[in-house]
Amino acid sequence: MSARDLLRFVPGTPVTEAGCDAHPGVSDKRAAAADVEALVEPSRDLQERLFAEGKHGSPRRVVVVLQGMDTSGKGGASESIGRLVAPAGLRVTSFGKPTDEERAHDFLWRIERALPAPGNVAVFDRSHYEDVLVVRVHDLVPRDEWESRYDRINAWEAELAAQGTTLLKVFLHLSYDEQRERLLARLDDPAKHWKVNPADLTERGHWAEYREAYQAALERCSTDVAPWYVVPADRKWYRDWAVAHLLHETLSELDPQWPARPDLDLAGMRDALREG
Ligand code: AMP
Ligand code: MG
User: Using CA positions, which residue lies closest to atom 9 of ligand 1?
Assistant: First the structure.
């Protein structure tokens, strides 16, 4: 069974804490590392083909959307994608609290601007979904407005898909207990103090509301053209395994081809090179 079949969100399924340390599709850490290693070469080959296509007229591109609570491993997941994709074809964008300029525009404005060039892969560390997550939990805009965003997101994503953008939407599903351990570990490690944000504890206090908001986003924005995948994220090795497989399967399905170059006079160029 593919990782996409294993992890695809099925509407109507409650996203409970029970599954956060599951590891469907692979038995243990060692096997997971070997699997991921075996995906590096084939993924890079597929991505290079996609990149080449993009340089020769294809509009196709891939956007990986990473969402999850603080410490769920969005940074770690983008690093593991970085192993599978050459840096020249990869663009990682983190979306934090909107700036004044961003706030003056529609919520999709800053997302549009971060879309990758044709042939490229983008990773979004947070995304337009924050506008129905943190914004919903804290009523940062009136309810009517955030309510209307689910449909707007679906329409926007459908348009992107129709124009050749493949969206891979990943919810890194972390448990409340594992988040405590990770936040504590941050406090104990000077190399992680730069990530410490006292506000994370406030957000943790809204855990149940976030869970509801995630459930709503998954329910309302899992579409055929842009489904959500739920990745159990309590085990870092499983998270990396899942993200690598989801990306590799996505690239394989696109099946990018080396562009044909009928415009080139190969024989003439060969002769010119040999003569000179
Ligand atoms: P971090 O990912 O740790 O750098 O934190 C980024 C913070 O920005 C998180 O607390 C997000 O909830 C917040 N954030 C991201 N997008 C938005 C948004 N559209 N509105 C308000 N806060 C946001
Ligand atoms: Mg943070």
Answer: 96
Closest CA to 63 of 160, 188, 173: 160
Q: What is the pLDDT of residues 19-52, one digit of tens each?
A: 999 999 999 999 999 999 999 999 999 999 999 9
**CA–CA distances in Å: residue 114 to residues 7, 57, 93, 240, 241:** 26, 20, 7, 24, 26
Q: What is the DSSP letter of 62?
A: E
> How is 75-109 classified by DSSP, letter by letter?
HHHHHHHHHHS-GGGEEEEE--SPPHHHHTS-TTH
Contact (CB, 8 A) for 175 and 185: no
Residue nearest to atom 17 of ligand 1 (CA): 97
For the chain, helix, strand, coil in percent to 5 are 55, 10, 30
239 closest CA partner among 147, 175, 166: 175
Which pLDDT tens digit goes with each residue over 184-241? 999 999 999 999 999 999 999 999 999 999 999 999 999 999 999 999 999 999 999 9
Of 125, 134, 138, which is best to mutate to test ligand 1, by the most ligand atoms within 8 angstroms of its C-beta? 134
For ligand 1, whether the C-beta of 198 sits within 6 Å is no
Q: Which residues pair with 165 in a beta bridge?
A: 61
Determine if ligand 1 sits within 6 Å of the CB of residue 109. Answer: no
- For atom 23 of ligand 1, the residue with the nearest CA is 97
95 lines ligand 1 (CB under 6 A): yes
* 255: exposed, middle or buried (Cβ count in 10 Å: 0-12, 13-18, 19+): exposed
